[in-house]
Amino acid sequence: MKAQAKLRVAALIVAAGRGSRVGGAVPKQYRLLGGRTVLARTLSLFERHPAVDSILTVIGTGDEDLFAACSAGISKQAGHVFGGSTRQASCLAGLKALIGDRPDIVLVHDAARPFASPALIDRAIEAARAHGAAVPGLAVTDTIKQIDLDGRVKATPERSLLRAVQTPQAFGFDLILSAHLAAAEAGIETLTDDGAVAEWAGHPLHIFEGEASNMKLTTESDFQRAEQAANELAALGDIRTGTGFDVHAFAEGDHVWLNGVKIPHDRTLKGHSDADVGLHALTDAILGAIGDGDIGSHFPPSDPQWKGASSDRFLAHAVRLVRARGGAIAHLDVTLLCEAPKIGPHRDAMRARIAEIAGIAVERVGVKATTTEGLGFTGRREGIAAMASATVRLPWG
Questions:
Q1: What is the pTM of this model?
Q2: What's CA 205's distance to the chain center, in Å?
Q3: Sequence ranges of the binding site
Q4: Which pLDDT tens digit goes with each residue over 122-133?
Q5: For residues 185 and 190, what is the distance between their CA atoms, to the nearest angstrom?
Q6: Is the distance from CB of 364 to CB of 391 less than 8 angstroms?
Q7: In the chain, what are the domains?
Q8: For residues 97 and 77, what is the distance between their CA atoms, to the nearest angstrom?
């Protein structure tokens, strides 16, 4: 199969607003949040993402020095341009500045959304690749009322059909540039986001899954909540890494348990519990990170109560030990070594199950598989081995 060509991706950060609803001596994107400015945090999201090639920021006139301090050390920074009197005008200024570079995809993101995850950026790029114009959205949980100018209710929209739209909004570059140029030519100036510009120009707009944590800092109470979250994370500054390794031999059977997923197979794995080699390695990795023995010391094979036990109990126990210490699981990663069964078709289910057991986001879980090229006991199909690592954050002291 022919490999898919690498697309050039540019991030356009809109930072020209004044943040009047928050107030303060500087615009909200230049306020400190957990010791760093909001804009510096936002730029870092795209700087660290491997699929983003360049970053262009739209700033307000007179903010050059503030921006220079925020963008120091951002190697992908392609400079800045000055925005206009509306968000729509600012985005158009940024898009025009990207014409020389002409990326395939542009991600337009609000400077005041510093909590977008790498997984959200991944989804945005893929949605733009697949649909041309796409925006992240969250299902609306509150009942929405449409009112008239006198405050009387006119309609109650069906909330299952409503979405609260976020950024980064993702587009084919030529598509969104031409849409913005056409809107400006027509004298349309009040469209509030780039998705609306694409809609106005007649392009179908796709909604992909957003993130509840991807909040926009709009009011003072938003900053207070964000500051509390940033301080709580900063307090967990004791970062530990643990590793785990486990092996189980094959026996007669018709399925195996791997990373919490039951997979049909012509053999089974032999062990005192369900012999889930992946979850056992992950459990040992977490216990290693907090220096609390190994899986055998917590769940002795000699104890009959663990005979045939589901290994999700072992992993959940290790996670509880971390939380009892005031800590948090930052990342879990497991590699399975086997010739069969094939892991690829079950990878997403495994990641989701591990994330569910550990109580973390699925983007904080990695699952990989490899063979030993026919060498050793795994190469002879005598069993399966697993290696795992766990990154844990604990409070200092």
A1: 0.63
A2: 22
A3: 246-248, 272-273, 280, 294-296, 370-373, 377, 380
A4: 999 999 999 999
A5: 13
A6: no
A7: 9-234 (3.90.550.10), 236-394 (3.30.1330.50)
A8: 13
